[in-house]
Design a protein that fits this description.
Blueprint lengths: L2 E5 L4 H13 L3 E5 L10 H6 L7 E4 L2 E4 L1 H12 L7 H31 L7 H22 L12 H6 L17 H11 L7 H4 L4 H4 L1
Parallel strand pairs: 1-2
Antiparallel strand pairs: 1-3, 3-4
The chain binds glutathione.
Length: 211
């Protein structure tokens, strides 16, 4: 059965789920959510996910939200990307929680404020505050990746896919690859994984559609 993944191209959280699906080899298809016209706030979408968030996955009678949980489901089902031991699995979870809390949520909000809000509504102080928080997160990531090729173990895992969720997007949000050499090399390594795709090539919808 084909897994359905509710997503839109601009969503780094959906990218984590779709890239995991793509690299896992499971059969899947995207279902476009018209986020910028309010679809994720509609009653129909809230039926699907009362949290009102993208991504959502449906596989037969299993419906899941939260990118990390979808990643975990896909990894369990495919036997891929989930680490080689219980210890590695816990390490992956550490990175997923850290990413969701300290990096992706701040990156996603900052990118939204800087690019998708009308210019006269962009709150400069909030953006500055968020960018300082992000810099601390990049420092953590840079420090770890200066020591090794992958966040957990010796191969790409869900941890890498979670943490890279926002880092390939071209819209500015306070991340410049050139300033972070270990992160830069790691992003290149991930993008050289067979089957890798850029978010705008993997999911429907991009800023170009709304230009
Ligand atoms: N922790 C969640 C975050 C999901 C999330 O914030 N998704 C955004 C799109 S990238 C969303 O749907 N936001 C709607 C809202 O916050 O109202 C995950 O990893 O799936």
């Amino acid at each position: 059965m084909t897994v359905k993944l509710y997503c839109f191209g601009e969503s780094g959280n959906a990218y984590k789920a779709t890239l995991t699906l793509e690299l896992s080899g499971l059969e899947w298809e995207p279902v476009f959510v018209d986020f910028f016209n309010g679809e994720s706030r509609s009653p129909a979408f809230r039926e699907l996910n009362p949290m009102g968030e993208v991504p959502v996955m449906i596989d037969g009678d299993v419906t899941l939200s939260q990118s990390g949980v979808i990643q975990d489901y896909v990894s369990s089902k495919s036997g891929k990307l989930g680490g080689r031991s219980a210890n590695e699995r816990r390490e992956i979870l550490r990175w997923q929680f850290w990413d969701n809390h300290k990096m992706s949520s701040v990156a996603g909000n900052t990118r939204f404020l800087m690019n998708f809000l009308p210019e006269d509504k962009r709150p400069a102080e909030v953006i500055d505050f968020n960018q300082a928080r992000l810099k601390s997160a990049y420092k953590v990531l840079e420090g770890e990746l200066a020591e090794r090729n992958w966040l957990v173990g010796d191969a790409i895992t869900l941890a890498d896919i979670s943490c890279c969720g926002y880092l390939y997007y071209p819209e500015p949000f306070g991340f410049d690859r050139a300033e972070w050499p270990a992160i830069d090399a790691w992003l290149t390594r991930i993008s050289e994984t067979p089957g890798w795709k850029h978010p705008y090539d993997l999911m429907p919808g991009s800023p170009a559609d709304r230009a």
